[in-house]
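TEACHING EXERCISE
Course module: macromolecular assemblies
Task: Read the component lines below, then compare them to the predicted structure of the full complex.
Student: A.B.
Group: 4
Components provided:
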Amino acid sequence: MKPMKFLLAGIAASVIALGSAEAADLVLGSATEPSAIDPQFSRTGNNQNIAMQVFDRLVQTDPTINVEPALAVSWTNIDPLTWHVKLREGVKFHDGNPLTAEDVIFSLTRARNIPNSPAPFSGNVGAIDSMKALDDLTIEFKTKKPTPDFIEQIGFVYIVEKKVSEGASIEDFNSGKAAIGTGAYKFKSWTPGDNLVLTRNDGFWGKKQDFDNVTIKFISNDASRVAALRSGAVDLIDAVPPGDVKTLQGISGLKVFSTASARIIYLALDSARDKSPFITDKDGKPLDKNPLKDVKVRQALSKLVNRQLIIDRILDGSAEPAGQLVPNGVAGNDPSIEAPAFNADEAKKLLADAGYKDGFGITLHTSNDRFPGDAEVAQALGQMFARGGLKVNGVVAQPYNVYTKGAGAGEFSAFIFSLGNSTPTSATGLRNLLMTANKDAGTGSFNRTKYSNPAFDEAMRVATAEFDAEKRVELLQKATKLVFADVPVIPLYWQKVHWAGKANLSYVANMTEDTSATLAGLAK
Amino acid sequence: MSATALFREDMLLGRLIMGIGRSPKAVIAAVVCVILLFAAIAGPFLTPQDPYDLAALDILDSKLPPGSQNMDGLTYWLGTDGQGRDMFSAMVYGLRTSLGVGVFSGIVALVVGTVLGLTAAYFGGRIDTLIMRVVDLMLGFPTILVALMLLALLGQGLWKVIFALILVQWATFARAVRSAALVEKNKDYVEAAVTLGISTPRILIGHLLPNCLPPLIVIGMLQVANAISAEATLSFLGIGLPITEPSLGLLIANGYQLLMSGEYWISVYPGVLLLILVFSINIVGDRLREVLNPRLGER
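Instructor-supplied answer key:
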C-alpha cells in the first residue's frame, strides 16, 4: 500500500507543481530573433520585440496605434521651436537607480550614432537642435524647424541608463551587463539561435506582470512553431500562418488572437529610370524604353491585380485590400480612396493607350520568408499579369537578407515589399516610402525605386509643418490622394496578423505586430 | 574502338539484363523506372495542363482536393496546389526536372570523374597524388553543405543546380574508377598494348575503361538516385529551382506548409512519387551490384 500512496502523493505534487509553473511562467515561440540586445541598435521588429520588454520609451502606442504616455507624462509646446517634456516620477532602472533627465538626454544623443546599426533611430532625433535639463524630471528641447509631431519622433527611442551604457559595447548589452532598462522584465540571458530568458521586474512603474519568468524560444519555421504550440512545448506563438488559423481555432485548449495590421504589402515598380533591368519585349529581348515610367501602364498593372482573390485564395482571408498606405483607423487614411478594382478591360485599354497593345515582358522579384505567403502572392501576380497580356519572364523568390540588398541596389524592375506602420499617423510612412530620396532631409529612406513627385513632396512639407492636429490629418489625406493617383507603388493589401496560445492565456493583438510578454497575461 | 571492346560491352549488357530478370523485386523496380522515364520524356503529351505557363493557371482553382473538377470540365485527379496547378501535371513536369537534373549531372560527373580517375591511376606519381587529394577534399565535405554554399554564391537556377551537383559527385566516380583501373593496369593485356606502341589515350579509353565499367555502372545508378534526392533537398530548402517551375522537392516544400491545414495532397503525392523514383533506382542499382560483384556469388 505504501508505494501506492507515494505514487499518488507524487502525482498530486507534480500536478500542483505543473499547475503553478504554468501559472507563473511563460514560454513564447517567436518567429524572429533579435540581432542585438542594445535597444537602439536596430529599429526592425525582431529587435524591438525584445527591447520593449526590457526598456521603455518616452511614449508608447496602444493596440490601435494611439500614443499614450510611458516614461514621459506630458509634453507641451511652448513656442513653435520649443518643447517641455515632463518625466514620470519614481521610475527606477533594474539596478535601482532612478531615471533622470540626464539619462534621457544621454539616450537621445546616443541614438544619433550607433556604430554599424542597420536601421538606426537617427531619423527620430534628427529634429532636435538642443536639449537642456530644467530639473531632474523636466527637459527643454529646441527643434531646428517647427515639428508638430515631435513627440512621435523622439518618443519612440529607447531610454538607457547613462551610467551603465556610456562606453558600453554591443557585447556588453548582449551579455546582460549593460542591458539595464526600466521595463517590465529584466534581461537574464540570451543564447543566440535558441532562446532568451527574462524575469519579472517587481519595481516596474506600470501594470504588474503575470509571469515570473519568460522564455522566448526562436522557432523560425512556421510548421515547427505551430507544432510546438500544439505539442505544448510553448505556451504562445506569434506569426501564425494564415492557413493554420482555422485549424488552431478548432482545437480546444487553444485560442487565436487576431487583428488587422498596419503593415502594407505592395509591389514596387521601377518607374524612375529610362531603362529597367527586367523589362523586355514580348520575345524576351531587352527593351530600350521603360513602360513603367508611364502612369497609364502602372494604372493598368494595378487594375490587373485581383486583390480580393489573392486574399481569399492565398492568404485564407487574412488581409484587407489596399489602395493607399495606411488602413482605416490610422490617421491619414483617406476613406474616399478605395482599393483599385480588378478590371481587365480597362487595363487592356490603358495599356493600348500607352502604346503597349501587345504587352511587354516583365520579371517579378520577391522574398520568400519575410511575411506569410510572399512568394505565393508574387506567383499569383505573375498569373494575373500573364492573363492581362503581359509576358511574365519569371517570378524569382529569394531569402529576405539576399533579396533586400538587390531591391535596395535597384537590381529589379518589379518587386514585392512591405512597410510596417508603427506611428499614429501616415506621415512617417509617406515620408520614408514615397518622398524624394534625400539623406540630409531624412526623406525617402525606403524609397527604393527613387520615385520622385515634387508636388507630393511639397504637399508633405506643408502637412508635416502644421501644428493643428486635425488640419494635419486632412493635409496628409490630400497628399495621399495626390500621390496614389500617380501609382508610385501598387498597394496590394494590409495583412491580418495572428498570435495563438493556450486557452488560459490572454494576448493583446496589436496593429504594430509587437510580440511581447507585456502584452500577454493569464486569462481572467 | 576495337571489336573486342564492343563484344565485351554486349556481354556486359546481356549479363545485366539477365541478372535483373532473375530477381522479381528488381524486375518490378526496373519496370517502374522505365515507366517513370517514359512519363518524364513524354511529359507534355500526357498532362492536361502546362503547369509552368502562368497564364494557364487559375488561382480560383487553388487548393482543390483530389477529384475536383474545374469549370471547363477538367478533372484534377490529384488535386491542385496553392497556385491552382493540376498536381498530376505538376508532378509529371517535376519528375522531368528531377530525373533530368539527376541523370544529366550524374552523366557529366561520371565523365569528369572517369577521365580524372583513369588519368590518376595510369600515370600515378604526382598527378595521382594531386588528383586524389582533391578527391579526398571533396569527399570530406558533406554533399548538401557544398551544394548549399555553391548555390548561395552562384544564385539560383537550373544550370547552377546541375553544376553544384556535378561538383559534389565527380569525386565519387574518380575514386571508384581509379581503384578499378589500378587493378587492371598491371594486367598483361595493358602491358601488351603498351609494348605494341598503342597511344596512351587509346590504351586508356579502348583497353582500361571497358574493364572498369562494372563498378561505374553501379555507382552511376546509385549516384543518379542521390542526385535526385539532393536536388529535392535543395529545392525544399528554397535555393534550388525557380518557384514557377517546381521540381518534386519544391512541390513537397510548397505543400509542407499546408500539411497542418489538412491539404495533404500538395505535399504527400509528390513525396510518394519521389520515394518511388529513388527507391526503384536504388533497388535496380543494388541488383546490378550483386550481378557484377563476383564476391556476392550471383553472376
